[in-house]
């Protein structure tokens, strides 16, 4: 299949429609990103990379990184990780305090902000050098050491982190945060600041389309069982309170980030990453979601 031709055809149709989303205005650095950027990359399980648009330009992957932090924590704690964070869809905004209060400091899943903060707390407890070891974990997936934190974006997030600080303090009061709050949040902001291209994202997430083994580095990163579990949580929880709609329209497990990125996997077939900075009201890339819906429809390729 000529994927690049398919990408171009879909983009040409979608670019004529209204894209009335907005970049993430509440994070100063992200608000300045060119809203018209668009890139898409698909990496097949046979090792073929197909790209279109701004696929080689780095952007902040934001909440997409929560899949990777979960993966690393999962390799360290195995199923014990689920004692501190659930696997259920939230049904509420990704930074909701109400649900967290009601459920006594146990986040619904690891992909909402509270859940990812708990995972960050776990990693600080089990890793000797969390920032360094987390990057090493990502590098092992792709065989590339150029992926780094973006200190400007991390500082920008920290400057407007009032809601996240409320979440972590609430969880601390329920004893579901074990380490110093400032240490946990600095690590959380750092990992969310990581920048990648859609080419890099598609390659990293090939681990989840290939039963836990990186197609790039040929290393086993996760067991097949862990891979199945993470894909399942992506399917049900990867898009905040819009996860059901994404599953209904696109039919792939995936994860979004407020930097405008979306990554999705078809187990046994491919991983695909798309970037378009304008977000819908639920915090997901507006054009990216429409693109993936059109793509899986055009190529008749989803898990359903």
Structure, described:
The chain is an alpha+beta fold. Helix content is 45%, strand content 10%. The chain has 14 helices and seven strands. It has helices at residues 3-14, 28-31, 65-77, 98-102, 113-126, 130-142, 151-158, 162-173, 181-192, 198-204, 206-209, 224-237, 243-249, 286-298, and strands at residues 39-44, 49-53, 59-60, 195-196, 254-256, 261-266, 270-275. The strands form two sheets. A five-stranded antiparallel beta sheet has the order 2-1-7-6-5. A two-stranded antiparallel sheet has the order 3-4. Strand 5 and strand 6 (261-266) form a beta hairpin. The protein is globular, with a radius of gyration of 18 Å. The model has no long low-confidence stretch (mean pLDDT 95).
Identify the notable features of this structure and list them briefly.
single chain, 304 residues, alpha+beta, five-stranded antiparallel beta sheet, two-stranded antiparallel ribbon, 7 strands, 45% helix, 10% strand, globular
Provide a short characterization of the protein structure:
The protein is of the alpha+beta class. It is 45% helix and 10% strand. The protein is built from 14 helices and seven strands.
SSE layout and pairing:
Layout (H helix, E strand, L loop, with lengths): L2 H12 L13 H4 L7 E6 L4 E5 L5 E2 L4 H13 L20 H5 L10 H14 L3 H13 L8 H8 L3 H12 L7 H12 L2 E2 L1 H7 L1 H4 L14 H14 L5 H7 L4 E3 L4 E6 L3 E6 L10 H13 L6
Antiparallel strand pairs: 1-2, 1-7, 3-4, 5-6, 6-7
Helix pairs in contact: 1-14, 3-5, 3-12, 5-8, 5-9, 7-9
């Amino acid at each position: 299949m000529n994927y690049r031709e398919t990408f171009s055809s879909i983009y040409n149709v979608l670019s004529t429609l209204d894209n009335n989303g907005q970049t993430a205005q509440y994070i100063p650095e992200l608000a300045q990103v060119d809203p018209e950027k668009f890139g898409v990359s698909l990496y097949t399980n046979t090792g073929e990379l197909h790209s279109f648009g701004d696929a080689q330009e780095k952007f902040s992957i934001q909440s997409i990184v929560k899949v990777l932090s979960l993966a690393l924590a999962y390799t360290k704690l195995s199923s014990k990780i689920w004692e501190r964070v659930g696997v259920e869809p939230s049904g509420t905004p990704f930074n909701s305090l109400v649900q967290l209060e009601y459920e006594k400091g146990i986040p619904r899943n690891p992909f909402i902000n509270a859940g990812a903060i708990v995972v960050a707390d776990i990693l600080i407890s089990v890793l000797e050098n969390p920032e360094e070891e987390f990057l090493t974990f990502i590098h092992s997936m792709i065989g590339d050491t150029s992926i780094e934190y973006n200190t400007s974006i991390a500082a920008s997030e920290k400057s407007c982190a009032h809601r996240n600080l409320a979440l972590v303090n609430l969880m601390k009061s329920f004893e579901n945060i074990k380490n110093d709050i400032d240490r946990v949040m600095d690590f959380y902001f750092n990992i969310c600041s990581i920048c990648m291209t859609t080419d890099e994202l598609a390659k990293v997430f090939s681990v989840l389309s290939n039963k836990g083994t990186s197609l790039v580095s040929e290393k086993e990163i996760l067991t097949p069982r862990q891979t199945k579990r993470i894909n399942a949580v992506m399917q049900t929880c990867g898009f905040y309170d819009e996860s059901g709609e994404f599953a209904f329209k696109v039919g792939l497990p995936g994860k979004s980030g407020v930097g405008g990125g979306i990554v999705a996997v078809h187990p046994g077939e491919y991983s695909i990453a798309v970037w378009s900075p304008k977000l819908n009201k639920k915090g997901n890339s507006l054009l990216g979601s429409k693109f993936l819906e059109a793509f899986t429809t055009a190529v008749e390729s989803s898990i359903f």
